[in-house]
Structure formats: C-alpha cells, structure tokens
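Hi, here's the filled form for the chain we discussed.

Project: internal
Contact: R.S.
Residues: 205
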Amino acid sequence: MKTINFFKKYSLVALLASGCLFTSCDKDEVVPEEENELEVITDVKLVFTNTADGTDVVTATAQDPDGPGLKDLEIKDAINLGVGKTYLLTYEIMNNLEEPGEDIGEEIAGEADEHQFFFGFTNNAFSNPEGNGNIDNASDAINYKDEDNNRNPVGLTTEWTTSATAVSAGEFRVVLKHQPGVKTSTSGFNDGDTDFDLKFVLNIQ
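And the returned structure, exactly as it came back:
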C-alpha cells in the first residue's frame, strides 16, 4: 500500500508540474494588441473664412517642429475675428516630418468614424453657437458641417457667427479626439485619446 501511495503521490506531482509547464507556455505567448496610434502632427492652421466675403480670411497656427518629441504644439497667433460676422472654420493639419509633408487632414477625413473635434470658448463670444462649447457637455450646440458614415459629427468644417459685442483676450479651444471603437452619437471629450488640444487667444472686434 505504501509503494502504491508513493507512486500515486509522485505521479500526481509530475502531472501537475507538466500542467504548469503547458500553462506557462500559454502565458508566454504574446497576443499582439490592436494598435490605435495617434496622428503625428507638426503643424495646425485654423482657417476662418467669412461666408459673406471669401477674401476675408483669418488664420491662426500652432507648430511642433520635432513632432512627438520633447516639445508640444505651440500657439503662434491669436484668433482675431470681426463683430457680427459668420465664418466657416476649416484646417490645414500636417506632418512635416515626412518629405513631402503628409496631409493629416485627409487621413482624419478617411477615418472620420474614429475622430471628432470638440470646442470650448469664452461664454457667449458667439451668437451661433451660443454658450461656451461642447467640451464640458457633448450635447451642447456646435455647428458641425460634416459627419461620418454613421451620421455622427466630425468637425473638419464648422460654422461660427460672432457676437455683436466685442471680446478682448477671450479663449478659443479646439481639441481633436481619436476615438476608434469608441465614437458614438453620445461619446464626448473624455472618450478616446487626444491628438491635439490647442488654446488660442480670441479677439472679436
């Protein structure tokens, strides 16, 4: 009986050890995760075009010559708009680390179901949309002029009518969110990752 128990005991130990070995091998197998890389962006230009006068164009830029290095995008200009005017806001978004430069705006348009722009601004700086933007509340009004295949807003084109009251040293914040597998009709600023987050000085005179 003792001999049988001895073999039973050590047979069980061997079986457990081999099981651990197989389990260990399974754990060592690394399953590659799906990558959702952020865009490499070195230059962002906001282009405000007066809808009543296409020659009235206001631009503001941010630059990061080293790309994903030590520096972030740095604001180069204030946004200076006219009182009581309506503007279409579009962008030039580039990765100029590439030669020739890569148009990231085209990439965003091609992946519209993974991207959305969110906005924050000095309260009532605009008569349309009113309020202070949709960063704090995704359902707040923004005049998006484009949408993805799911009919959710993107923001490569938006419309803005400035207040009849002058604004000095206000703020205009624009945030591009990267939301693969996350973007829905109710997703907001806190969902996904941030491609860029820019705060411009806003003057309306």
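Let me know if anything looks off before we file it.
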